[in-house]
Amino acid sequence: MPKTLADIKKSLDGHLGKRLLLKANGGRKKTVECAGVLSETYHAVFVVELDQEDNACKRVSYSYTDILTEAVEITFLDDAQIAIAK
Prior knowledge:
By secondary structure, this protein is of the alpha+beta class. It contains 3 helices and 5 strands; from the N terminus they run αββββαβα. The protein has a 5-stranded antiparallel β-sheet. A hairpin with a 2-residue loop joins strand 1 and strand 2. It is globular, with a radius of gyration of 13 Å. This is ABC transporter permease.
């Protein structure tokens, strides 16, 4: 991943609307893993629309700092990976 917040935002802007796997620190040694679509990017945060059947909430947002500090890991899926996941 890029090394600055501006580079991270620019990288995410290029992936708007694409499916992804999100792995985030849930606190107290818990890790949250979920799938969704990168829906919006703002000046300081980005929004992911989560798959409804797997999650109670439908949207989550994280800051670009979360990616920089590796509290959140994002893996974008290509078409072959999406077909396997379904």
